[in-house]
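Sharing a chain and its predicted structure for anyone who wants a worked example. Both blocks are below, sequence first, tokens second.
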Amino acid sequence: MNQEYYSDYIVRGMAASGQIRCFAITSRTLVEEARRRHGTSPVITAALGRLLTGGAMMGAMMKSKKDLLTVQIQCSGPVQGLTVTADAFGHVKGYAADPIVSLPASPEGKLDVGRAVGQGVLTVTKDIGLKEPYTGQVQLVSGEIAEDLTYYYATSEQTPSSIALGVRMNRNNTTAQAGGYMIQLMPGIQDEIITGLEKRLTEIRPVTAMLEEGHTPESMLERILSGYELELSPERLPASFTCGCSRERMAQALVSLGQRELGRLAEEEEKVEINCHFCNTSYSFSSEDLKKMI
């Protein structure tokens, strides 16, 4: 495959004279970057990869460069929890509470994401510059991520949606394919359009199967919305696993501990290591570094 095939990006569009809003993404590279950074097992790569993929499309709905979206799953399954944050520019990052979980395949022979996640709650927080962030929370309906996000939009935002997310792994535990799409119905949509679209969606192959066939985000939406006057934005929004942590930010976190705690650490520890949950990067500070902070 050529490099362009593997480059991650999001496309956006409208159909049926504005009655349908749609997004699609190819996300293999960003999911593989998350797997590499966190050393996730195959089923956790699939779970986290789906949430990263969905989170990237959800972030693309935001308007301001300062807007930030966080999707968090707290659950009873062995993964224990998943956290993803995204901005309006295709930057997404995330982690699993337990990155290494081994489970038998599902009865269909697939990675059993639903069992890895189990029961729990999904919380979406949007920090869009208001006094208080908007927060919506729903119970998980399946643990399969796409169904849970679909339920969130229907219940918390009253936006009927169809969301499909997929991650396919190679035998060597690298990411073979990843991507997804989101179809949303706007207020006042005609009943016959809903009926026709529901039938169309039952005929659509899984996301990873379409990607294996060579489909792009654009052609996935064209297949789903053929006959609905699809209008895609000419702009491709690049998507990537991106973390904004730095040594300077971690130093600020240490300074916030106060002089007394920094003094204790400087006397008792040769060095202090701080790990970023989101990208698994470690930052080391010697006792001399701590004394300078004091």
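Comments welcome. Confidence is low (pLDDT under 50) at residues 1-6.
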